[in-house]
Amino acid sequence: MNVEKISISLPKDLYKELEDFINSRGIGDRSKVLQIALRNYLDENRGGNELVYGVINLVYDHELASEFLTEVQHEYNSYIISTLHIHANERICIEAIAVKGEKSKLVELTNKLSQARGILKARLLISYPYEST
């Protein structure tokens, strides 16, 4: 495996939290945890219009947002692969919308969905189609 060794500085409380997390879950490789966290950070904050895959996580009051969300999803249907809908209770719904397309279009879709009255959470999780490391 082609790797670079680096040294990082962490505040003591963050280091302790990381160590407690790793030890409580029996994770033997601190580097792997940091690699995953760094990749997630870069994926979500990188610019550009590459082809990406993602999941839009929505939490909303269906009495206030359902009609608008349906209209927007139909408008962007060429980017939507699949949708999972969960009823958290009689009013609150959770949706996981699997998407694929140019990053800017997926950000645009997420922003548009988040404008609906009744949206409690809207977050786009992005994954780039990169080779195995």
From TrEMBL:
GO biological process, one term: response to nickel cation
Domain Transcription factor NikR nickel binding C-terminal: 54-125
Molecular functions per Gene Ontology: DNA binding; DNA-binding transcription factor activity; nickel cation binding
Domain of life per record: Archaea
Gene3D superfamilies: ACT-like. Chain A, domain 2, Met repressor-like
UniProt keyword annotations, A-Z: DNA-binding, Metal-binding, Nickel, Transcription, Transcription regulation
UniProt cofactor(s): Ni(2+)
Pfam families listed in its UniProt record: NikR_C
Cofactor note: Binds 1 nickel ion per subunit.
List of residues binding Ni(2+): H74, H85, H87, C93
Chain's role: Transcriptional regulator.
HAMAP family: NikR
Similarity-based family: Belongs to the transcriptional regulatory CopG/NikR family.
Protein name as catalogued: Putative nickel-responsive regulator
Organism whose genome encodes this protein: Saccharolobus caldissimus
